[in-house]
Hints:
By secondary structure, the chain is of the alpha+beta class. It is about 30% helix and about 25% strand.
Amino acid sequence: MKPSTIDEFHAAQAPEDRLICEALRQAIDGGLPEAESKIWHAHPVWFLSGNPIVGYSKLKSCVRLLFWSGQSFETPGLKPEGTFKAAEARYTDVDQVDAALLSQWLEESRRIQWDYKNIYKRKGRLERIL
């Protein structure tokens, strides 16, 4: 069964992965208090004005933190993911979550956004909105 809330998503994780998810959620909620958070495509995702900004998911070997516009960030530490502008960090232990670095990425995520909300209207073309 797919989770319908972030709490349900966390409850379905193994204990170590749950700790990682909880640390990420706390940092994201603190860093983007104005963002709307919800389960989207079965994973926790935060949105600003309807545009997906950051989220995380459980992969086979880790928890992946994904910033939709992360390839445009200046702060190092994220790896490109996919064919658009997303970038990721992967965690296997809660001690790997660097709160200061995550805070910098979250600040950049507010300032640097590509318009994923309208990607279908633009037939797969992304435009910078901030």
